[in-house]
Amino acid sequence: MAELLAVKNLCKNGILKNISFGVKAGEMAAVMGPSGSGKSTLLYQVSGMDRADSGEVWMGGTELCALSEDDRAGLRLSQMGFVFQQMNMLKNLNLLDNIMLPACRLKQGKASGKEIERRARMLMGKMGIAELAERRITEVSGGQLQRACICRSMMNQPKILFADEPTGALNQSAAREVMEEFTRLNREGTTILMVTHDSKVAAKCGRILYLSVSFGWQYPRGIVPCGHGGRTGRNRQPVAGGNGMVRKKRSGWLTFLHKKAIASVQVMAGLAPVLGMYFAVRFPMGIQQGACCPFPEKQYNGWYENHFRGGL
Known about the structure:
- With 312 residues, the protein is an alpha/beta fold.
- It folds into 2 domains: 3-250, P-loop containing nucleotide triphosphate hydrolases (Rossmann fold); 258-309, no CATH class.
- The protein is 40% helix and 18% strand.
- Helix 6 links the parallel strand 7 and strand 8 (191-195).
- Helix 3 (95-105) crosses helix 4 and helix 5 packs parallel to helix 6.
- 32% of the residues are buried.
């Protein structure tokens, strides 16, 4: 299948360096990475909301960096949909009017007001929020509001849907419901590129692009930094160039073991200061004397023999 989005040697403010990757039509891909790695910055560049310092971004045969600001805005309105962590809805409009707004703004559209409303209500029905059409945005839950945002993003039948931390402000139940809607849209043929820090959200995607802050980042198994000479093996797909990388989904048991290993390290790190305080209280004389060991052999030899050799 042909690439709908193609990024070549993208650079921005020293954060993104020679990033190159592609997203095929009908694909659902996630961008992950630690804070400060440039995930949201990458999304703004490839969607045309910001202009890159260098490199190329091709959207269906159109090079975004070569377009004027007005032309990029028109392309975003007609061919792209956006879902953000913050809902960005107008408080003086109800849910239905907020959802209809992008279609009303599309100048070349010939749809009548009734046709626009019919499509908006149809999308709300698919998302399970049809009964909330007349509600204000302050009268619905966070999950319902995010589903309304997805409806708004799909009003103009975009070629690609960009999502920036779409579940970041939601609880676990609402996040799961929203991701089910994204998965359904993707099965229906919508191309999706989303930024997320949640591994459960990323696991729903068919491909993961991983950005690192520095070359010293410890890469999990199955991830190879692109452009740094890493080997390509099972479940590894390095991107050509830059500090980004991409992988296929990790199997469930590997994810489980990875989480358990991280949890064990965190527990050990948490016990270290507790053990330090314990020895400081139990052996104050050794510490007051500036000894390297809290039980110098000359003064505590008997205690050492009785407790350490005999067992505590």
